[in-house]
Write a structure and sequence with these properties.
The chain is mainly alpha-helical. It contains seven helices and no strands. The chain is about 55% helix and about 0% strand. The radius of gyration is 22 Å and the shape is elongated.
Amino acid sequence: MSEKWEHWYKKEYAILKMHYSTMPRKELMQLLPGRTWRAIGHIANEKLRLNRSHDIPKSEEEKAALHTKMSIGRGKRIVQPFAGKHHTAETRVAISVSNLYARGHSIKDIANRKGISEKEVRDIIENRGKKKK
C-alpha cells in the first residue's frame, strides 16, 4: 500500500521554526492546514530537531482529554485534577479502588493493597458513579 507524500514548503518550515516550541497545538495546526499533528511532529523533531516547551498553554479540550487519559492510568498514578478542583483523600481512594476493580483485581486483593476492609471496597464499588446528595 503506497501513500502519497506531500512535499513540505519553505514557508511551512519557517512556520514550524518560529512557532513549534511555543504555540498551542490547535493554533499551529490551523497555520498548517492539511498537515496532521503526527506529520508536523515528525518534521519538527526529525528533520528540524525542534522541541516543544512543556509550558505551552493547553486548550480546554486537550486538558479534558489528558484528564481522561490519566484517570484510566496504570494504578500507580493518582488522578490529578485540573483548574483548582481538588479531590479529597476519600475520593482518591474511591477512584483508585474503582480502577483496580475495573482491571480485574479481586476485592480481597484491593482491600489488602489499600489497607481498608473488604466491606468498604464493596461499598465503594457498589456506589461508584452515583452522585452524593
